[in-house]
Amino acid sequence: MHKDMYSNPNANRLLFPELQQTTERLVKSFDSISPARKELLRQMINFIDARVRINRDINLNFICTHNSRRSQVSQVWAQAAAHYYGVRNVYSFSGGTEATAFNLRAVNAIRDAGFMISTIKNGVNPVYEVFFAKDAKPITAFSKTYDDPFNVNTDFIAILTCSHADENCPLVPGAIQRVALTYDDPKEYDSTSREAEKYKERVEQIGTEILYAFSRVIRT
After folding, report:
1. Which of 105, 178, 186, 189 to pair with 198, CA 20 to 30 A apart?
2. Percent of the chain that is helix, strand, coil (3-state, to 5)
3. For residue 91, which of 144, 149, 48, 123 has the smallest C-alpha distance?
4. CA distance 198 to 61
5. What is the rounded CA–CA span in Å between residue 199 and residue 186?
6. Which CATH number characterizes residue 60's domain?
7. Is residue 155 part of a domain?
């Protein structure tokens, strides 16, 4: 396909300044993505491309066991990446095989990347609004199961972000496609000297790969 059909970096839409800086830095690191990872990402790219071509909603549901870290991070990056690259009609969701809470370490890690976060409900399972641009609606983020009524339940692509969910969800009801795009869990470093480093590393890995995917989507 001719490269001019792909997203034009000069036409990218602005995010909040700190997130914009993070995004521009991650975009420069696309070469760090391995061919094997790019092949996995190609499945998501093809799904989004196909939807763009027929002007259909692009529903992405990122699924992990507890919906506490990797799936939440993936959700917010997907919505921000769609905005940045001007890919319309993208609706990003996340869920787990069980509900727990959006882990505060992950919340702080995406805040450090430049997302703006407001707590709208405290408790065992807090509810947050995650903002990424002035002219975009915030993401409502809280832990839930992937089939929670808050999420889209039909006509979506299921993107499994942890190996446990991948192994235990061979079929995801309502999904028209399933992709295993798994990431190592930063939870392994909780309460260690490398905790902040590893959460930042995972947020940036997920951001880099999802930004790469949206950079390869054709715009209408």
Report:
1. 178
2. 45, 20, 40
3. 48
4. 24
5. 6
6. 3.40.50.2300
7. yes
**Cα(34)–Cα(79) distance, integer angstroms:** 23
Task: For residue 1, give the nearest of 36, 35, 45, 40 by alpha carbon.
Answer: 45
Question: Phi/psi at 177 (nearest 5 deg)?
Answer: -155, 150
User: Residue 158 belongs to what domain range?
Assistant: 34-183+192-215
Find the farthest-apart pair of alpha carbons in the chain and give their distance in angstroms, rounded.
51
Asked whether the whole model's pTM tops 0.90, one would answer yes
In terms of phi and psi (left: phi > 0; alpha: psi -120 to 50; beta: otherwise), the region of 174 is left
> What does the pLDDT look like over 107-122, one tens digit per residue?
999 999 999 999 999 9
Here the tokens at position 137 are: 């609606």
Nearest CA-CA partner of 159 in 26, 9, 41, 10: 41
pLDDT-based confidence at residue 101 (cuts at 50, 70, 90): very high
DSSP letter for 33, please: S
> Would 23 be classed as within a structural domain?
no
- Distance (Å, rounded) from C-alpha 70 to C-alpha 29? 20
- At 89, the amino acid letter reads N
Residues 6+ apart with CB under 8 A from 31: none
- DSSP assignment of 146-160, as one string? TT-TTS--SSEEEEE
The tens digit of pLDDT for each residue in 132-153 reads: 999 999 999 999 999 999 999 9
Q: Are 33 and 208 in contact (CB under 8 A)?
A: yes
